[in-house]
Amino acid sequence: MTFDEKTNMYYPSEDIIENANVKEYEQLYKYSIENRDAFWAEQAEHLQWYKKWDKVVDESNKPFYKWFAGGKINVVHNAIDRHLATPNRNKLALIWEGENGDVRTYSYHALNREVSKFANILKSMGVKKGEIVTIYMPQIPEQIYAMLACAKIGAVHSVVYGGFSHEALGDRVRDAESRVVVTADGGYRRGKVIDLKSIVNDAIDNCPTVEVVITVKRTAHEVVMVNDRDYWYHDLVSLPIASSVCETEQLDANDPLFLLYTSGSTGKPKGLIHSHGGYSVYTSTTHRMVFDIKPEDRYWCAADPGWITGHSYLVYSPLMNGSTIFIYEGAPNHPYPNRWWSMIEKYGINILYTSPTALRGLMRYGDSWVKKHDLSSLRLLGSVGEAINPETWKWYYSVVGNEKCPIMDTWWQTETGGFMITPLPIIPLKPGSASKPFFGNEIGIVNEHNQEVAAGEEGSLVIKSIWPGLATGIYNDPQKFIDTYWKKYEKEGWYEPGDSAKRDSDGYIWIIGRSDDVIKVSGYRLGTAEVESALVNHPSVVEAAVIPLPHKLKGNAIHAFVILNNGLTGSKELATEIKNHVSKMMGPIAKPEEIIFTDTLPKTRSGKIMRRVLKARALGLDEGDLSTIEE
Ligand code: WT7
């Protein structure tokens, strides 16, 4: 790569362009917009179908688009089965390192065996096509087997992030009405055992639909097993029912693959649905083109499978593309801040995909921890979750990537399934910009009259076209899908992501941040309403409002304005107690940075809390238009 001071851009070297899977952007982009269906049909040909589609996209029931309608496919056929007939059979599919140093590796042949056994166990528990299985696990290979096993038999998985509290887990199990939950006794994090099984036990006390809990042994500490409900995975896997042969279910392209709960503007997280066909095409195409995947690559997506990044770019797309994936169980700085770098060296990782918050967390220990290691295997880097600040970008580029690796700053969402705005390795880069729309996508930045804003001006980001990775709905609530994403631009038929952005005079897009009631803390997505209801759930709190304020490591941190019950006065102890209460209710990621006791909150006449006023005050900025304020 070379940096050009005149343009302030980073240019790819000749050999990057020469060897790239996609060698040109503008013409192919133009083609993909003018021939959207043909473009996606060509990409779909990279996968194997049991039966080809009748129609690339059926738009008869907007906004519930049916991609590859009439087609028959299964993501597992493409992620595992088809590799077995090629030399990939003997290639490593998975390298796993536990935080305690345990290492396990699996070829595609072995992956097929493990997933088939798991699938047969699920079948023996009566799991049927279309049934939603909740998975709550640490980052161990069995987490991935459980996901793939569900998909293989046409069941729908709902992975709940292992850092969530028992309340958050219970909410999701109840909404999905899961009968079967897959978990582990625990996992390692910073040398300590996280006791997942007891969190599951607490959650399930209030989940009447749950009949079966399958528990994988990871830490072997003592756990409570309930008779006739709880089964050890290692007991089941030694039974004759756990055969290593299991047929992959032939599914409709629009049969659901998974639910993933995510936060929005309302109090309750919603279960976004992704389906086998369009999702497989979109994620495998974006992964192959943007990460420039080569057969010999060792690829590390450092996200947890509990988030969409883990679903799309740790599990499904890399396996569809026949990559060797690396996964790591624990904390990046355990036992020392060189843990990540030592593993990149040890396993010869070629591509690293992570978040700005993780990078900032490692950057603060200084360059020497990185420089101890030979990272010359790295060829390409990726970033996701929030805009990457230029300082972090430059550190990633020079210290981690040795000024040799392009950085793919990928903008997308749980709802979009895959990358929407992203560079390609062949285009010049600007630190902090997610660059250009991916093929097939028309991106707009508009003002309140739905007109494109001028270059350099801030506006609302909109997606004017449709794409195969788009979620196919919200579980149990189709109306919410319409209201949340399509109502605002109903006439235009545009999708509303809820972000604001700018486009510069070179056509590069700069994401500014959420423009709705969603807060991004360390790249994690939290709804203000969810955090506020956890605050109000504390016996001393009557009302609360939360806002994000800039934070050096987390990007944003939650600041909570709290009104106490009559007669109570705020204290340091009470603030700590309230913080811990939120952490217990929602999980540690939602823990407020600061509690500010107050007597009133600024509200509109209709009673809506004006969070922007709180934020402006906290930052010492202009409070803007206060004409609608009541208090
Ligand atoms: C929101 C979606 C998609 C995987 C992880 C997050 C923010 C995501 C970027 C980026 C600027 C980004 C947006 C978006 N975001 N990637 N590269 N640059 N902002 O998924 O939890 O559904 O959150 O994350 O605000 O709307 P998610």
Bound molecules: 5'-O-[(S)-butoxy(hydroxy)phosphoryl]adenosine
Please state the overall shape, judged from the principal axes of the Cα atoms.
Answer: globular
Per DSSP, the total helix count is: 19
User: Low-confidence spans: pLDDT under 50, at least 5 residues?
Assistant: none
**Most strands sheet:** 8 strands, mixed
> Strand sequence of the main sheet, in spatial order?
14-13-10-8-9-16-17-27
| Strand elements, count | 34
What can you see in these coordinates?
With 631 residues, the chain is of the alpha/beta class. It is 29% helix and 24% strand. It is built from 19 helices and 34 strands. The protein has an 8-stranded mixed sheet with strand order 14-13-10-8-9-16-17-27, sandwiched between helices. Strands 7-6-19-18-20-21-22 form a 7-stranded mixed sheet, sandwiched between helices. A 4-stranded antiparallel sheet has the order 25-26-28-29, with no helix packed on it. Helix 10 crosses helix 11 and helix 13 crosses helix 15. The longest helix has 17 residues, at 108-124. The model has no long low-confidence stretch (mean pLDDT 96). Residues 262, 308-309, 384-387, 409-414, 434, 497-499, 511, 514, 520, 525 line the site of 5'-O-[(S)-butoxy(hydroxy)phosphoryl]adenosine.
